[in-house]
Design brief:
- The chain is mainly α.
- The protein is about 45% helix and about 10% strand.
- It has five helices and six strands; from the N terminus they run βαβββαβαβαα.
- It has helices at about 10-20, 40-50, 70-80, 95-105, 110-115, and strands at about 1-5, 30, 30, 35, 65, 90.
- The two termini are about 20 Å apart.
Length: about 120
């Protein structure tokens, strides 16, 4: 799931998280921001909004965030709301920590199945 894309607001972040929290037996891997690809509609939107210029190099990833959401608040809200949920992963780097923990307990195989049972 990607948060922070076009039109994202604090209200849509909360709504999206509530919808995801209603899912049972489901692992959610959430990311923040959308990579801008050259020539895409998002590329044009980012230029129009002044987030980048037409000559901004995009060879290395450049991430778009809705100007209607406070990115620091959003990332903090996602991380703290889901910090005690093993089936909700944000930021994605938490996946590596959990995988190492599960492996230290002798678990092997697909992490998603393990997190659902954990």
């Amino acid at each position: 799931v990607i948060f922070g894309g076009p039109g994202e607001t604090a209200d849509t972040v909360r709504e999206g998280m509530a919808n995801l929290d209603a899912l049972d037996h489901c692992v959610v891997l959430a990311t923040s921001g959308v990579r801008i690809l050259p020539g895409s509609p998002l590329h044009r939107q980012a230029i129009d909004e002044g987030a980048i210029t037409a000559d901004t190099p995009l060879l290395r990833p450049v991430t778009y965030f809705s100007p209607q959401v406070d990115v620091e608040w959003m990332n903090h809200h996602l991380a703290t709301t889901w910090e005690d949920r093993p089936d909700r992963i944000f930021p994605a780097s938490r996946d590596n920590q959990r995988l190492q923990f599960l492996q230290s307990m002798g678990m092997r195989g697909v992490i998603w199945d393990k997190l659902i049972r954990y």
